[in-house]
Write a structure and sequence with these properties.
The protein is mainly alpha-helical. It is 78% helix and 0% strand.
């Protein structure tokens, strides 16, 4: 039911854009594993990690926009879960650094 409302509210250009964006999001990491490092289409692991961070931030922005703008509900739970993920990532990176 909600999917029908979302699809009816999007025009063909928006659906094509979202489909292209999803295809790029799936193909970039897969092609990075398949292509040799000497290929001009190979991305360094830094750019793949940076792309992942941008996708996570975009998902956070999209979820807050949908819950606050479309439903009119301010949900602080989104921020709490995002902060919990940031804390977990920080603790993981502290283990990678080691004892200094």
């Amino acid at each position: 039911m909600i999917g029908d409302v979302v699809l009816r509210s999007l025009d063909r250009g928006a659906i094509a854009f979202l489909t292209t964006l999803a295809a790029i999001g799936i193909l970039v990491p897969v092609l990075n594993l398949v292509l040799p490092p000497t290929s001009p289409f190979h991305l360094s692991s830094y750019f793949v990690a940076l792309f992942g961070k941008y996708v996570c931030l975009a998902l956070l922005a999209l979820s807050i926009d949908l819950i606050w703008g479309y439903c009119g509900i301010l949900s602080l739970g989104h921020g709490a879960f995002f902060a919990l993920g940031g804390y977990a990532m920080g603790m993981y990176l502290m283990r990678q650094i080691g004892t200094r």
